[in-house]
Amino acid sequence: MNIEWQEKRQLVKVASLYYKEGWTQAQIAKKMDVSRPVISKMIQKAKDAGIVEIYIKDESVHTVELEQQLEKHFNLNHAVVVPSLGMTDEMAKRAVGQAGANYISHNMKGIKNIGISWGTTLGYLVQEYPYERRDGIRVVPMEGGMGNQSVEIHANQLANELAKKMNGSCSYLYAPAIVETEELKNRLMEMQDIESVLKIGRKVDMALIGIGNPHKGSTLTKMGYLKESDLSQLRKKGAVGDIGFRFFDEKGVPVSDSLIDKVIGITLEELKALENVIALVEGSHKMESVLGALRGGYINVLIIDEQTAEAIVREVGKDLE
């Protein structure tokens, strides 16, 4: 862009007043005895001519760029990428939980019913959630319990604790997450107490979920819910992740399995029908699992650690360019 010296001088003067001195466009217009739209055009021309180059100097700029890429590529309502460089897994989980608590606390408008799944990252979210007074909030578990192990991260317990933090009420799902037979599952799901909770779960205003990888660092495997024979079958069928004991492949397509047929809880199809599903994830070993869930369209809001977000963006880098 070829600009005469006199014009360039004016552009530099306007840009300096606007960006360095903090003057408003109206103040500059008054000083230079022109209209405010003229100043607006001069500022834009200074940018176009390369006189003004804007740099954002902050450690958050990288995570914000990752958020924008994730939102654009996967059509998310929001992505929150949590800085986690140099953190231990537990520290990163807590940071993601804290970010989740902050996000939810500031996005409660119109929310009456909340569904919550299970897991350690959601456990940190509930721990970090502030005590608030919110009238008429009800929290429900999105699947049954899992015996006596790690009770503190079961959906029923998390629903109870979150309801306390919000000064709301909660409903319990009085059933195991996985039962012995499909017939027993069907009988239990017809019981009024169980069906009424699942009915609310299918229509919640906000669903809080975690995402698991059955093959790496799986809490289900550690707790003995997934045996080697189960893992072998899931591997053969291409399962890369699960949400509430429901498994899916790399494209997000639900995987049919005898184990899944015995789960008491919200299905992936029912989850996908919800308009506000918030996923909290930590750990780069879950990259393929999160990617599958994103491709399946199960998530509207993703709250994730920086390393895992980077891994996802790298994996789909060609599509993001």
Automatic annotation (TrEMBL):
The keyword DNA repair does not apply. Residues 61-313 form the Sugar-binding domain. InterPro entries: NagB/RpiA_transferase-like, SorC_transcr_regulators, Sugar-bd_dom_put, WH-like_DNA-bd_sf. This is Sugar-binding transcriptional regulator. Belongs to the SorC transcriptional regulatory family. Keywords: DNA-binding, Transcription, Transcription regulation. It comes from the Bacteria. The keyword Transcription applies. It comes from Rossellomorea oryzaecorticis. Pfam families: Sugar-bind.
